What does this fold into?
Amino acid sequence: CEADPPLASQNTNQNYTWLNENTLTYDTRFGVHAINVVGGFTFQHWYYKGFSAGITNLTTNNEGADNLGVGVAASPTSTFTENVLASYFGRINYRLMDKYLFTFTMRADGSSRFGVNNKWGYFPSGAFAWRVSDEKFMRSIPTISDPKLRTSYGVTGNQEIGDYNSLQQYGSNAYSLGSVPSRVVGISPSNIPNPNLKWESTASFDAGVDLGLWNNRLLLTGDYYRKKTTNLLLNESIPQSSGYTSILKNVG
It folds into this structure.
C-alpha cells in the first residue's frame, strides 16, 4: 500500500483569563445591634487566540516543521474569542440580640454575551433566621437544645450560551472554480442573530427548621424548597425552509 504523504504544521495558541476583585467591608456593633456591610466590584476577561498552518508533500524531512516552504501549503486556520463579565455587588448582615439574623444582598452582572440593551441582569436575595434557643421560654424545655427557624429567597443568573451567539456569525466555504480550477473562498451566515437575548434567571425559595435534641445528640433538619427558572436560554427549533434549524431564544 502507498504511504501517506509527509505532513508538517505549526500551531500557536494564546489563552488567558484575568480577574480583578475589589471589596470594602464595614463592621460595627452598638448595644444589641450588629451590622456588617460588604460592597464591591469585579471584572473578569477571557481571551483565546489561535493560529495553525501546515503543508503536505514535503520535498525533505530534514527541516521538520521549521521551514513550511518546502511543501504544498494547506489552508491556514485562525480563531479568536473573548468575553467580559463585570459585577457590582453589596451585602448587609444585621443581627439583633444575636438571635434575629437578617441578610440582604444585591448583584448587578453585565455580560458581553448578550444583546446591546440586555447586557445587565439584577439579582437580589434575602434571608432571615431565628435562634429560638436563645429565647427565655425555651429554657424550661431542656429536651430541646438548639432550635432554629430560617427562610430565604434569592435570584441567580445564567449567561452560559457561548461567545457571540446573540450576534450574526459567518462560516467560510471553499470552492474550485474556472476552466483552470482555482480555489475561491466565500462566507455565508451560519446563524440567526437575536439581539434581544438576556439573562436567564432562577428564583429559589427555602423555608426550614433545624432542631437539636438531648444536648444535640440528635439533630433534625426539615426544608421546603421551591425553584423556578424564567427566560430559559434554549435553541428553539424552526422550519428548515428558513435555511436554519434553530434559533437561540429566551423561551422557558
